[in-house]
Amino acid sequence: MLDREDKGMTLIVKTVTRITLGFILLYGIYIGFSGHASPGGGFAGGVIIALSFVHIMLAFGKDVALRHLKARMLRVLSALGGLVFLFVILMGFAHKRVPLDMIFDAVRSCHIFTNDIIIPLCEMVIVGAGLFAIFTALVLLSKIDKNSE
Amino acid sequence: MTVYLLCLVLFSVGLYCVLRKRNIIKIIIGIGIMEYAVNLFFILLGYRHEGRSPIFAEDQMIKNVVDPLPQAVVLTTIVIGLSVTLLLVSIAIRIYEKYGTFDITKIDNLKG
Amino acid sequence: MYLVPFLLIIPLGLAFLIALIGKKINAADSFLTAIGTSSLAVISYMIAFSVLANKILVYKTGNWISSAGIPMVVDALAAFMLVTVNTIIFLIALYSIDYVKKYTDQWKFYTLFMLMVGGINGVLVTGDIFNLYVFLEITAISGYFLVAFGTSADEFEASFKYAVMGTVASIFILLGIALLYSYTNTLNMADMANVLASKGPSKIIQFVAVLFLMGLGLKAALAPFHAWLPYAHSSAPAPVSAMLSGVVVKVSGVYALSRIFFNVFGMTAQISTVLIILGVLSMIVASLLAFGQSDIKRLFAYSSISQIGYIVLALGIATPLSIFGALFHLLNHSLFKALLFLNSGAIERTTGTRDLNKIRGVLSNTPVVGYTGITGALSICGMPPLGGFWSKLIIILACIQANRPVLGFIAISVSMLTLAYYFKALTPAMFGQAGKMAVNGAQKKVTLAMSIPMVILAVLSIVSVMMLLPNSGNALLNNAVSVLYGGRDYAAIVFGANK
User: Fold this and answer.
1) C385: cis peptide before it, omega within 30°?
2) Is the dihedral of CA B9, B13, B15, B20 positive or negative?
3) Which of B77, B92, B74, B15 is nearest to C168 (CA)?
């Protein structure tokens, strides 16, 4: 991340952001994945992950933030997250009559794999990508860009 | 009992904001207050006497857990409230661009 | 029976799929929407035939037992509404393929449209009251987005007012669900009916009934809560108006109201009186306000409020004949109102304006639009032998049969008022001299994809009277009436099917 004095906030904010950014992301992933034992879960984790990206955007200006996570990728991520989620739910629906049941049984037998990893992961991806996309849209929408004055 | 009454007081504060304030942003904040009040009310309904959090731990003697169903319900409701707030805020930004004001009594193009 | 979850999987999956590939591949979004809605219509017909054979379909999600899980319950009422709604959605989707070509980001429209379809189907098939709330919210939120789709100043104002009022109503519904859960300790609707029947009447149930009336009454646009409807339905793009007025108001308002009040609470005399008063108020207020309208879509919106007043009045009287009339009028009105709103969209495209003082000569310019518009308008006014006449006749007969001749008189006079304002508004528009308007920014021809759904809807509104035929036609409708009239027997049927 370049250090340009004319965009974003002051030097102190930029330095502190560079240090703490990884920790915020890691903390968000931790809260997302340990939702079965402590308060949190996929949704809260997704919000914190989105906050880490918003942190980049606030501290460095929107160009730097968008260079690292393009707007197109956000749309793909949230739609993909939704589709994988739907597929996992479909596996819960299948019965013995559906001809694809062998695939479903094989995947469903790894109980931990579907229940405790995929579902919070999907929630985090959807919520994180979605919230950051909306924040980006709102920032791009307003004609006043305070970060570049 | 007083806890539930305080929740309803919070709800009526939010309702007053939605009904009587003229600024669009204050209306959105009022809707947020109403949602928080209803979510709080729903979670407080689930309290059982001397209950602990409803997490399944195999190595502890569990005497009483609080009701986990309102917690799952409220998680969903918070997400719904979040998306409604996002929608309202983005519409408020676009209204400011088109009408030039945040005053809801002046945003009155459609008549009848 | 395993078809029921597909009613939800297809729209939601297609919504995400269109969001993923809609921007890159050129015509993928409209193609997927057409395939999706047509398959939904076919699935709903198959489910309706299956419900006619066995009485009810219960699908337990994830094989949880009934009081702990979320079941999907399709009984005759839900099957009837599924058939109605999915047919109309398919036709509106066909119409909108050509209509949204004038917007830039088309894939967003199709995504929101499929999300709304998924929400509507979810409301119809669910058997759990919180699931009902979640799908109500999905429908409503995609509605708020769709109303603001054209990004003009009017649409934003209309969407904001609709969103604020709709959100307040949803919060009231949520408060009602919270109180119901604390009283009955279950969220399953059939289980709740059993618990409420065994616990007897109490004051908190009356409070919860009032909360549900406020919340669902706003979504159904009953009289004191109707203020959002003229804004939202007139400023939205035409297929969205048809969806909102022909499908969403009926499903999320009238269907949810009747399901909760007939099957969970049990119809008491107080609720019946309140529903009658609200229905009469809607009919009269909307008809009187419709006289002064100069915008064609606001006129149709006020007419919607008044016709839904008819439906709620007939539901309030709660005899078997009146419930039959209410459901039949619901089917008819969905058909006509969708037809009229699609018509108004076509008029707006060909003449470039929505002002009734300026539109002239629709019949001579674009005959398809003119004839279907006249059919729809005459149907709503209740002209025999079109469909609206039969349903209004049944409602009026039911009023008199239930020893309330005053209500029958009010129904007849409101029907005459309806004829009056439609006549006053639409006659100069349809039959006037063409060619005196300045058409800037309008296309001159109505394309095929826009005219075919209108023609099909007009034909359907004429033949919907076949639902009245004794042996074949009205089997589904009779079963639906018995579901509502049986009241709390809904719980027994659901649990009987659960063995």
Assistant:
1) yes
2) positive
3) B15
Closest of C277, C254, C28 to residue C120, by C-alpha: C254
Q: Within 10 Å of residue C421's Cβ, how many Cβ atoms? A: 21
Please report all neighbours of A, defined by 3+ CB atom pairs within 8 A: B, C
Q: Single out the residue of C57, C42, C123 nearest to residue C87, CA to CA.
A: C42
Q: Nearest-CA distance from C6 to chain A in Å? A: 10
Q: Which of B34, B74, C171, B41 minimizes the C-alpha distance to A39? A: B74
Neighbours of C499 (CB within 10 A): 4
Tens of pLDDT, residues C145-202: 899 887 777 888 888 999 999 999 999 999 999 999 988 888 888 888 888 888 877 8
Query: What's the start-to-end Cα distance of chain A, in Å?
Result: 20
Q: Where are the alpha helices (DSSP H) in C360-488?
A: 362-365, 367-381, 387-401, 405-431, 448-463, 475-486
Pairing mode, strands C57-60 and C71-74: antiparallel
| CA atoms of A133 and A51, how far apart (whole Å) | 12
Model pLDDT for residues B60-100, shown as the tens digit of each residue: 666 777 888 888 889 889 989 988 998 899 888 888 888 88
For residue C143 the two structure tokens come to 């509605």
Tokens of C274: 């309140």
Type of residue at C382: G
SS3 C57: strand
Token representation of residue C245:
């007025």
What's the gap between Cα C292 and its chain centre?
A: 25
In contact, C385 and C474? CB cutoff 8 Å: no
Contact C62, A92 (CB under 8 A): yes
Nearest-by-Cβ selection for C2 from A79, A80, A95: A95
Lowest mean pLDDT among A126-130, C79-83, C116-120, C301-305: A126-130
Closest CA to C418 of C314, C319, C289: C289
Closest partner residue to A83 among C20, C23, C62, by Cβ? Answer: C20
- Between the alpha carbon of residue C405 and those of residues C283, C321, C397, the distances in Å are 16, 15, 9
- Give yes or no for C17 touching A (CB within 8 A): yes
Nearest to C9 among A75, A79, A90 (CB): A90
| Predicted model pTM | 0.89
| CB of A95 less than 8 A from some CB of C | yes
Distance CA(A135)–CA(A142), nearest Å, equals 11
Contacts of B68 in chain A (CB under 8 A): none
**Three-state DSSP state, C439:** coil
